[in-house]
User: Fold these one by one.
Assistant:
Number 1:
Amino acid sequence: MTLIDIYLANAAAQRAAAATTNLPNRREMHERSAVVWEAMARSIEETQGRAAVNLAAKASLV
C-alpha cells in the first residue's frame, strides 16, 4: 500500500464518519479533513510526476 493509498483511505474514512454523525459541526469537520487528505494525495502524485519528468530529462543528457 502506497502513501497515496493510505491518504485516500483516510479520506474515505473521514467521509464515512461524516455520513454517520448527526452533529453538523462534526460532519463539517470530517468533510474538511477528507478534503485535506485528498489534497495531500494529489500533492504526492504531482511530485512523483515531476520527479519522473526530471529523471527522464537527466537520462536524456547522459
Note: The chain is about 90% helix and 0% strand.
Number 2:
Amino acid sequence: MRLLKARFLSLLTGILLGTMLVSAQSDKFVFTTAWIAQAQFAGYYVAYEKGFYKEIGLNVEIQHPSLTSSALNRLKTSASQAEMFSLMSAMDFIAQGFQLVNIFQDSMNSSNLLISRWDTDPLKMKGKKVAIFNSDPNYLTYIMDKREHMNYEWVRFTSGINLFLSGAVDATMVVSYNEYYQLLQSGFKLSEESIYRFSDHDYNIQETGVYVKRDYFLSHRTECQKFAKASQKGWEWAAKHPEEALNIVMKYVTRFNTPTNRVMQKFMLKECLRLQINKDTQKREFRVRKDMVEKASRLMSECGLIARPVTYNELMGL
C-alpha cells in the first residue's frame, strides 16, 4: 500500500510539474526585433534588463531574426508572439489577408534618405542607377520614383555602403541611423544638396512598430497592453540615461557578435531617439498617427503596392 501511495504521489508530482512547465512556456511573450542586436532596439533591451517587463507581470524573451525564418513566418507559426514591421509592411500584409494589430509604435518619422554620389540633387538624376535594400520592400522609394517620374534603374544590395563607395551606382538608399553614419565614418563628403530626406517632403511615414496576430490580440489584450507600457518605460528611461542605455546595448552587441562599435551605436541611439519625436508636437508619443496611416494607404494604393486600402481602425484592432 505504501509503495502504491508513493508511486501515486510521484506520478501526481510529475503531472503538476509538467502542467506548470507547459503553463510557464505558454505564458512566455516572445518578441523578435527587426534586425540583429543594435541600438535601434535599446528601449526593449532596457525594459528587459531593468526588470520593467518582469515587474508588470510579463515574461518577455527578446529574440533576433535569422536568415532561415522570416518575421512573418515566425508569427504564422507562433514562434513569436510579437514582431517588428514597418508601418507600410504591416499594411501590405493586412491587405494580403494576414491580419495584424499594432500594439506599440517606436517610430514617428521616416529615416529614409536617398543620397547622390555625384554631389547632385537625387531628383535631378532621372534614369540613373540607385542601390536599394534587397531585404526591404522599399515602398517609399518606389512611390517617390513613380510620383516624381524618376525612372531609376534599381540595383539591389544586402547591406553596407561598398556598392555606393565603389561608384557602381549613382545614388543609394540609406537609413539615417545606420548607413548614413557609415558614409560619414568612411570619410565620404556629403553636401546637403546630395541628400534627399523623405521626412522633409510629402513622404514622411512612420516606420517600425510592434505587431501581433489579430486573434492573439483579441485573446491577450492584457499582455499586449503590458508589453506596450513596459516598452515605453524602457524607451523613456533610455532617453533620460543614454550612456547607461548604451552600456546595455553594447552588452547585447557583444553577446550576439554584431559587427559594430560603440561610436556607431551611440550615433544610432541618438538618431533613433530623435526619430521618435513627433515633429508637430515635439513630444515622444509612441503611437500610430491616423493621418500617416491614411496617407500611406493612399500612396500605396495609387502606386499599386497594395491590393486594397487599409484603415487605421483595422491596423489598431478597433
Note: The CA atoms of residues 40 and 272 lie 6 Å apart.
